[in-house]
Amino acid sequence: MTDMGNQDIRAAAPAGEAQGARSAARAADNAAKPIGVVLEIAGSGSQIALDLQRLNECMKDEDPSIALAGQVGSQIKIKVGDSWLLASVRNQRQDRRQNGGIIANIDFLGEGQEEKLTGRIHSFKRGVTRYPVPGAYIYPASTADLKMVYASDGRSNIQIGTVYPTKDIRAGIYVDAMLGKHFALLGSTGTGKSTSAALILHRICEAAPAGHIVMVDPHGEYSAAFKNTGMILDVSNLQMPYWLMNFQEHCEVLLTSNGDDRQVDEDILAKCLLRARSKNRLAESLGKITVDSPIPYLLSDLSTAIADEMGKLDKATSSAPYMRIKNKLEELKSDPRYQFMFSGMLVGDTMADFIAKIFRMPSDGKPIAIIDVSGVPSDITSTVVAVLSRLVFDYAIWAREERTRPILLVCEEAHRYVPSEKNADGSSVGDILSRIAKEGRKYGISLGLITQRPSDLAEGVLSQCGTIISMRLNNERDQAFVKAAMPEGARGFLDSIPALRNRECIVCGEGVAIPIRVSFDNLEESKRPASEDPSFVELWNQSGGEEDSVQRVVHRWRAQG
């Protein structure tokens, strides 16, 4: 920017007050003086020139929004006719041609009308109707301006924290918009992701005490956070009937073979499973059933059907496939770790009770079900999650004739269940969660994904999330992946993802009017998940009782419970 241009900017502003003027007057003065000019215009963003002297003057301002004016991630405003155009500063570089000049790129966020008396912004909305022309002046956005921009438009919202850099503007998320188009919470380990997830879910539960939320918790962290407001289900009280599994899930649990043998085993299992299901009186009353129908059957009936089929073999056919399935079935029945699912007590028709329990229908003041799968044997964890997710989806499809009762399914460590193509293992859980991401909102299902490795998520799934809440991401691949999934106007905000503090995030998408950087509220101790990192030095300075502790652990280890 030329020296002449710098003089123009200062001349365009009202004359400053005397040195001893009050700070309020100085703030008004800074807000009214330009800090730069528009150099070039493009569809989604533009290039501007900033005056370094004016930026230094603004830095001393008591209004934190004006003090950060022109810096990366800050908001600036441009006058266009009767409107103010709001933009976010994406980057800065020195103007080599001019001494002390700064060139910056900006992303347009939206526009608002100007109040004639005060000059403030009102009726803010996303998108741009009219673009400024090169040479238009740029002004700092004050806290008063941002208050109008971030003010709720009347839709139901939850408040999760404070808008950065202000001290008093509350950050709200529109619940219907966030849940209606799915959401993702991303952040590296140690950034406060679990506490932030608990905060958002607590706020949703407070806003909707008769809600229906199902959360899959792979580490048992959230039981502590929702012990008063949620139903905690783990291997001791989940009592999940094995016969709710469809054929694909039965194959995952019961079949151990690969290649050509796999197809042989699948054909045998399909035939025997259908026969076992058909023995139930329910099957007789329904007439026609399939191998996927959730009809109760006895494990002993399945075992008998396999033995009968094996007895019909002629001498040339091998009995190995039948023995493989039979042996695996016996193993599941006798192993105490699988009792929560393969117990002989779970053969009664408890499907309606089970669904009412996990979907919180009615909620009875506990709108969230925490499904703690940390005690589930690792080889069937993904199948258990698949069954729970599929029940949500199938229930929503078959409940279309009823009054819609939307269900929120929250999946922690989502990259384990919906992995990217290179990590995909063809499991049913990846298929069903991908399907919910693509089709769920038609049936009133919302999906919430929480992960520390977004780059390991299936590509299509993250792009289906309408609202993205991103905390600090340390890995460059993850940062690039999230940027690709974000809307164009938020890219400037995303450059600050590596620089976020703990318990700070960037929210963009459907759930907010414009992208915002938020400092999360503090959550009460009793509502926090059990995810605190241990203090090594503190714990390694305590001793006593180690022998007894080891004995107890070994006993639990052997007893598997």
From TrEMBL:
Residues 158-392 form the Helicase HerA central domain. PANTHER family: HELICASE MJ1565-RELATED. SUPFAM superfamilies: P-loop containing nucleoside triphosphate hydrolases. This is Helicase HerA central domain-containing protein. Gene3D superfamilies: P-loop containing nucleotide triphosphate hydrolases. It comes from the Bacteria. Pfam families: DUF87. The lineage of its organism: Bacteria, Pseudomonadati, Pseudomonadota, Alphaproteobacteria, Sphingomonadales. CDD domains: TrwB_TraG_TraD_VirD4.
